[in-house]
């Protein structure tokens, strides 16, 4: 029996899932102790429930994919609209170093995946699918490239395999970030946990903060500001839909969220530096954080965990090894390259989302860590642009290059 949830029911359930996540994280000590993001905790509870319904009662619940995509586009639009050139310069050398660490791991990920696939007697391209195609690329890249693998390279079930691998990455990426950061912070005595009474809403002025920093900070906004900001979001999302259709099949074809992000960057800096119009960062932060939470909740509650259950043992081995290799890479490479500081530990939590999940997971990871140990302005400057923009372009080039070798 199949139940279809419309957009409104999907939003209602997503909000309920977020509330469940808040209760679960605050009631189960180990989840709070290891900084598991609330949307991840609530989403996994919902995913387990849908799994039980499917296995025991043959009931499937499908949520509205369009509303989920809209919240995803709103999140990436907020990343773009927050990308002031002034703030981008603040990233400086640290941004380049972290980008180098992330890009280098894209290559490591594919070497591990392809090598293990060969050792286990699988097609090397299956190793690529369980590499950066899905783990760094996420569900959108998995779906797009999965069809290419099926059509042009004869990999049957590549789309399902890709979705299952991306699902694994999304779950593990959200579960790994907090524990990895906590281990590094405690081992090197980088910070102490904030006292429960310390106000999370205490933050510098908005002009001194980065996107998604201080998500629980009270932001005073007016209806006029909100309407203007919604207009900017609408422009960027409309542009993303237009370019997705126009670029289909062309050499410059890109996922919708990349177009939304690019439009946000251009629109923000054109308005700010050419027309000298003040940008409403407070509204952008509110809409961005709300979209982030709802998108993550929807993505996780929509997971079909039986796809993971149906994976062959060899593929599960590859995915587990990928997570283990990332953990080693974070400890021995990223943490040291970024200076073995508190900021470096928070960036490692973010990289768990970037290279083993999705940018929203990365943001949720660093929010969970900074809520426990205190602010990391550098992480909130670097993670959104690295994960949402630069790495997707690099990943597309790497995938195409490897396919040209095997083609």
Automatic annotation (TrEMBL):
Kindly state which keywords UniProt assigns to this record, in alphabetical order. Amino-acid transport, Cell inner membrane, Cell membrane, Ion transport, Membrane, Sodium, Sodium transport, Symport, Transmembrane, Transmembrane helix, Transport
User: What domain of life?
Assistant: Bacteria
In which broad location class does this protein mainly occur, judging by the first location in its UniProt entry? membrane
Where it sits in the cell: the answer is: Cell inner membrane
The transmembrane segments are: 6-24, 36-54, 66-88, 95-117, 153-177, 226-246, 252-271, 283-306, 312-332, 380-406
Q: Membrane topology type, per the record?
A: Multi-pass membrane protein
Pfam families to which the protein is assigned, alphabetical:
Glt_symporter
Record flagged with keyword Zinc: no
InterPro entries, alphabetized: GltS
Output the NCBIfam families linked to this UniProt entry.
gltS
Q: Which family does it belong to?
A: Belongs to the glutamate:Na(+) symporter (ESS) (TC 2.A.27) family.
What does the protein in this record do?
Catalyzes the sodium-dependent transport of glutamate.
The protein's name: Sodium/glutamate symporter
What's the source species' lineage?
Bacteria, Pseudomonadati, Pseudomonadota, Gammaproteobacteria, Moraxellales
Q: Report the gene name.
A: gltS
């Amino acid at each position: 029996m199949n139940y279809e949830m419309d957009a409104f029911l999907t939003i209602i359930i997503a909000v309920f899932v977020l509330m469940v996540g808040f209760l679960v994280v605050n009631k189960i000590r180990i989840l709070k102790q290891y900084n598991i993001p609330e949307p991840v905790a609530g989403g996994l509870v919902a995913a387990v429930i849908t799994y039980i319904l499917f296995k025991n009662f043959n009931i499937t619940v499908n949520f509205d994919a369009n509303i989920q995509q809209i919240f995803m586009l709103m999140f990436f639009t907020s990343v773009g609209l927050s990308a002031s050139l002034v703030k981008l310069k603040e990233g400086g050398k640290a941004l380049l170093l972290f980008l180098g660490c992330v890009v280098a791991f894209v290559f490591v990920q594919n070497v591990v995946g392809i090598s293990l696939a060969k050792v286990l007697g699988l097609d090397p391209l299956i190793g690529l699918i369980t590499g950066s195609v899905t783990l760094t690329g996420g569900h959108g890249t998995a779906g797009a490239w999965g069809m290419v693998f099926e059509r042009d390279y004869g990999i049957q079930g590549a789309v399902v395999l890709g979705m299952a691998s991306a699902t694994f990455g999304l779950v593990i990426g959200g579960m790994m970030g907090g524990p990895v950061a906590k281990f590094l912070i405690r081992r090197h005595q980088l910070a102490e946990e904030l006292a429960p009474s310390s106000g999370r809403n205490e933050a510098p002025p908005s002009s001194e903060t980065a996107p998604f920093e201080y998500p629980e900070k009270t932001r005073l906004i007016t209806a006029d500001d909100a309407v203007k900001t919604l207009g900017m979001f609408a422009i960027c999302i409309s542009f993303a839909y237009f370019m997705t259709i126009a670029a289909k099949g062309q050499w410059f074809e890109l996922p919708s969220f990349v177009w939304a992000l690019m439009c946000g960057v251009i629109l923000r800096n054109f308005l700010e530096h050419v027309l000298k119009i003040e940008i409403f960062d407070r509204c952008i932060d509110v809409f961005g954080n709300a979209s982030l939470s709802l998108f993550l909740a929807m993505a996780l509650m929509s997971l079909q965990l039986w796809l993971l259950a149906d994976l062959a043992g060899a593929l599960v081995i590859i995915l587990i090894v990928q997570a283990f290799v990332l953990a080693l890479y974070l400890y021995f490479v990223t943490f040291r390259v970024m200076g073995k500081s508190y900021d470096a530990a928070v960036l490692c939590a973010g990289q768990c989302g970037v290279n083993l999940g999705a940018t929203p997971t990365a943001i949720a990871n660093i929010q969970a860590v900074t809520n426990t140990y205190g602010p990391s302005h550098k992480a909130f400057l670097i993670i959104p642009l690295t994960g949402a923009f630069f790495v997707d372009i690099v990943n597309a080039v790497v995938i195409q290059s490897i396919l040209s070798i095997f083609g």
